Amino acid sequence: MGRDIGGEIAELLAEAEEGGRCLVLRGRGSARVYRALERRVAAGTVVSPARGLYVSAGRWEGLKTDQRTLFLARGLQEQHPDWVFCGPTAAVAYGVDVSWSLQGNIHVATTRSGHSPNGTLVHRHPILREGEGASRIEMVGGLRVTSPERTLFDCLRRADFPRGLGMIDSALRSGVVSRDGFTSYVESVRDGSRGKDLVRGTLAWADPRSENGGESIARARMLLLGYACPELQVEVPNLVEGGAPFREDYCWVRADGVVILGELDGTDKYVEEEMTRGRSIDEVLSDEKDRESRISLYDVVVMRFRFGLTADPDAFAAHLDRYGVPRRGSELALPDGARMIPDWESIRRVR
User: Fold this and answer.
1) Percent of the chain residues past pLDDT 70, beyond the cut
2) Which of 159, 170, 93, 88 is nearest to 123 (CA)?
3) Spatial separation of the C-alpha atoms in residues 325 and 318, rounded to whole Å
4) In the beta sheet, which residues pair with residue 247?
C-alpha cells in the first residue's frame, strides 16, 4: 500500500511540475492522499508554499524566484479560476524583469465591490472595472492577468524608482509595451492618479538598451545620486581579432574628452548556462581578461563594480567619483540628451 500511495503522489507531483505549477488536489485528492502529502511536508521531501499547494522539495529548491512566482500563481489559478493577477505577479507572467524583493506576495486584482482583506501571501487590489466596459483581461502562460499597460502602470506607481526603471526598461526591450502606447495609456488612466507623476518620471528615463534588471537598477541609483546618465551598450571595436566588437554596459564621454567605460559585475555571468554558453568558469574568466586587455588598447578609464555596491549610496558615490564619472550639470558633463559615443580612432593608444 505504501508503494502505491508513494507512486500516486510522485505521479501527481510530476504532472503538476511538468505544467509549471504547484499540485492542487481538488476533487481527485482523497483524504488518504492529503494525509500522505502532509506527512511528506513534515518530513521535508515535499513543500507546501501555500495552503493546498504542493511541490517536491527538490524541484522547489531548484526554481528561481520568477519560476516560484509562476508555480504559485498557476496553482492558485487552478484553485480560483476567476482570479485575475496584477502588478508584479502579472509582470512576471509577461516575462518582465521584476526585482526579487517585489515577489514576496502574489498580487490579485479585484473590483471594489468584490474586494476583501489581504492575506499573508495574497495581496488584493481593487482596480478592476465593474459591469459594462469591464477591464481588459489577458491569458498569459496559463494565468488570467491584467493588460500589459495596466500591469506596468500598477508596478511603476507602487515601486521605487530603481525597481520601477528595471521593469519598464525590460517591458520596452521585450516589446510587452511600446513607449508611445504606454504613455498614452498612462494619460488615459483616471484612477490611481496619485501615482502618475512617479510613473511619468520613471518612463522619462526608460531605455530598452539596458540588458537586464540589475543594469537598470544600478543606472537608476546613479541618477538618484546626481550623476550623468550613461550611454548604454556602447560597442568597442576589437583591434586584435578584428571581429565582433565588445559591448560595455555604460559609457560616459566627459566634456574634457575623457572616456569612462562601466561594467556591472555579477555572479550570473560565471554560473548561468545562458551567460557562459557552455564554457567553464576558468574559460569565462580567461575571456574576461582577454577582453580587458584589448580594451586597454584605447585611452579609456575602465570602471567595474558589483551590484551590491549600488545599494550603499555613500560607497557607490565614492566609487563613481574615484573613476571620474561626471555629475549632471557639472562642467565635465555633456548637455542632457547628448549622445556619448567615443571617437575610437582618436583614442587608440597603439597604431
Assistant:
1) 88
2) 88
3) 10
4) 235
Q: Cell 586584435 maps to which residue?
A: 240
Mean pLDDT of the chain: 89
Output the pLDDT for position 132: 56
Per-residue pLDDT tens over the stretch 230-243: 999 999 998 887 77
**Burial of 238 by CB count in 10 Å (0-12 exposed, 13-18 middle, 19+ buried)?**
middle
**By the 8 A CB rule, do 214 and 165 touch?**
no
* Residue 66, C-alpha cell as written in the block: 520568477
Please calculate the CA angle 51-77-192 and round it to the nearest 5 degrees. 105
| Residue corresponding to grid cell 514576496 | 104
* Interatomic CA distance for residues 125 and 314, integer angstroms: 36
* pLDDT range class, residue 116, cuts 50, 70, 90: confident
Cell, residue 33: 492522499
Q: How many residues does the chain have?
A: 351
**Residue 78 dihedral angles phi and psi, to the nearest 5°:** -65, -40
Q: Cβ distance 75 to 21 under 8 Å?
A: yes
Count CB neighbours of 314 within 10 A. 8
Residue 178 has phi, psi (to 5 degrees) of: -105, 155
H-type alpha helices, the chain: 2-18, 31-43, 57-62, 65-79, 87-93, 148-158, 161-174, 179-188, 196-204, 213-224, 268-271, 273-276, 281-295, 313-322
Contact 309, 316 (CB under 8 A): yes
The per-residue DSSP string of 253-305 comes to E-TTS-EEEEEEE-THHHH-HHHHTT--HHHHHHHHHHHHHHHTTBS-EEEEE
CB 16 within 8 Å of CB 65: no
Residue 133, C-alpha cell as written in the block: 466596459
CA distance linking residue 306 with residue 291, whole number of Å: 18
Beta-carbon-side half-sphere exposure of residue 275 (alpha carbons within 13 Å): 14
- Cell of residue 331, nine digits: 562642467
Under a CB-based contact definition with an 8 Å cutoff, are residues 305 and 217 in contact? no
